[in-house]
Amino acid sequence: MANCHVVFFPFMAYGHTIPMADMAVLLASRGLKTTIITTPTNAPRFSRSIQKTINYDHQMELHIIQFKDAELGLPAGSENPDQPVSDELLSTFFEAISMLQEPVEQFIRESHPNCIVADMFYPWSTEIAAKFNIPRIVFNGTGFFPQCVANAVGLIDHAKNVQSDSELFIVPHLPHEIKLTRKQLPHFESEAFKGFLKVLIEAMEAEVKSYGVIFNSFYELEPEYVHHYREVMNRKGWHIGPVSLCNRNTEDKSERGKKSSIDEHECLKWMESKAPDSVVYVSFGTIVKVTRSQVYEIAMGLEACNEYFIWVIKNEQEQWLPEGFQERTAANGKGLVIKGWAPQVLILDHESVGGFVTHCGWNSVLEGVTGGVAMVAWPVMAEQFYNAKLVTDVLKIGVSIGDVEWSATASCDGVERVAIEKAVARVMGGEEGDEMRRRAQVLKEKATAAVKEGGSSYSDLNAFIQDIKTFKSDS
Ligand code: UDP
How far is CA 189 from the centre of its chain? Predict the structure, then answer.
């Protein structure tokens, strides 16, 4: 049944390429033909997924289009946001993104797919799909809950509702009482974000005009918000995750997205030497920039709380660690510092890991849930403050790091070591932490059941496939 062809076009950030690659693998495993469109620098990110499908005789291909970096004066290879361009060049980066429209349209014209699943950052793909009478499905990298909160926040004039940026207000019309402050909301005042803001507005408009949105989520995680999205917001959305669960063996888990900087067997050996639920994993994902002073405070906080930890830092952050920190924590077996890329899913799935200090990127939250761990929610940017509320206030599987402010520049800063020590102690020890972990374990079981035959995500993926196979354009 390899006649139905779905084209995936991910935005080039890891938080988008990783789940979309898993989605393409998932659809290929159901007998559909899948193609991922990407640019030359980003192509290697998909090689593991392509290899996997070849091994299973499934149909998945890459289609490479050129990125006009040189033409627009961008540094060569700046094809993704984790090789950041300067603030001044951010608008140029998005201009280069908009120039991908033509080669994408050409590919759709030539290959006649049944459907295009395109990232939110390509709003113009809705027009391309309309031109060729195929459905455009949006992927925005988040879940139903953050989408519902963002929609509700957009409906209120929060400038009128509160006296100050730090006063809590209730987000109206939601199934739970969700409280936020103005300083936790996205805001892009700076001139440098003009181009980005324009794309965000176009993305929201295009989402409403598109056929539907595909979510890396599962019904049992956020049932009220699946209903809210479908019935109250009146949008079409399918939940087909957690897609990370399609990576079953050690290699698939440790090479997801990128080859780990640490040998996976060395990492496993370290974790195996620890008791169940005794290790806290600390990671801020791929975009967040942890400042020099914050790196220092995290180190001091981790050492003070005396728990076992695995901490992922960027290579350049090593020199910001306190004197002798790595040597001390390695020698007493307390800490494993991974410089570069960690095998996150492998770590979170390990029984020794019981806690996760996270920036609350959607993938990390979901991977934490499928790992059955309790979380310290430390949001920084994008929709992460909404995701944090899901973790702490709705699912009650984590605690908040405290009073932090949304950052347009993705800068993580200003939390003192005592707050870190206290938050880690709450999730790792005592009845409170155990209770959160018990709830997380229940969700883990539900997540595993959701992707099995007959489960909620398995069935919704069937519904999705059926929908695109029988799609008839209104025009
Ligand atoms: N990731 C990983 N190793 C790392 C850093 C990140 O495997 O060292 C993966 C992580 O498992 C997740 C993705 O990268 O799937 C990050 O996505 P998320 O939405 O959590 O955060 P973002 O980086 O987009 O802010």
Answer: 24
Cα–Cα dist 218/54, whole Å: 27
All structural domains of the chain with their residue ranges: 5-241+451-474, 250-448
With vertex at residue 367, the alpha carbon angle to CA 363 and CA 368, rounded to the nearest 5 degrees, is 115
Count Cβ atoms below 10 Å from residue 109 Cβ, excluding itself: 11
- Residue among 418, 411, 419 nearest 384 (CA): 411
CA geometry: angle at 339 spanning 337 and 392, to 5°?
65
CB of 326 shorter than 6 A to ligand 1: no
Q: Do domains 5-241+451-474 and 250-448 have the same CATH topology?
A: yes
- Single out the catalytic residue among 5, 58, 69, 119: 119
What is the CATH superfamily name and number for domain 5-241+451-474? Answer: Glycogen Phosphorylase B; (3.40.50.2000)
- Name the stretches of the chain with pLDDT < 50: 1-2
CA separation, residue 323 to residues 299, 318, 319, 329 (Å): 10, 10, 9, 11
Q: Is 370 in the pocket of ligand 1 (CB under 6 A)?
A: no
**Active-site option among 5, 16, 350, 359:** 16
Non-local CB neighbours of 81 within 8 Å, separated by 6+ positions: 12, 13, 93, 287
Which residue's structure tokens are 């929610």?
A: 377
The interface pTM score, or ipTM, of the predicted complex is 1.00
> Do residues 144 and 120 lie in contact, with contact meaning Cβ atoms separated by under 8 Å?
no
Per-residue model confidence as pLDDT tens digits over 348-385: 999 999 999 999 999 999 999 999 999 999 999 999 99
Domain 250-448: top CATH class: alpha beta
169-195 in b/e form (b: 16+ CB < 10 A) is bebeebeeebebbbebbbeeeeebbeb
Alpha-carbon gap, residue 332 to 448, rounded angstroms: 36
Distances (CA, A) of 184 to 150, 193, 418: 12, 18, 22
Interval 300-338: pLDDT, tens: 999 999 999 999 999 999 999 999 999 999 999 999 999
Instruction: Please give the span between the terminal C-alpha atoms of the chain, in angstroms, as a whole number.
Output: 28
Ligand 1: distance of its center to the CA of 467 in Å?
A: 30
Rounded Cα distance between 175 and 18, Å, is: 30
Distance of CA 309 to the CA centre of its chain: 22
The answer to whether residue 227 is catalytic is: no
Tell how far the Cα of 75 is from the centroid of ligand 1, in angstroms.
24
16 tagged catalytic: yes
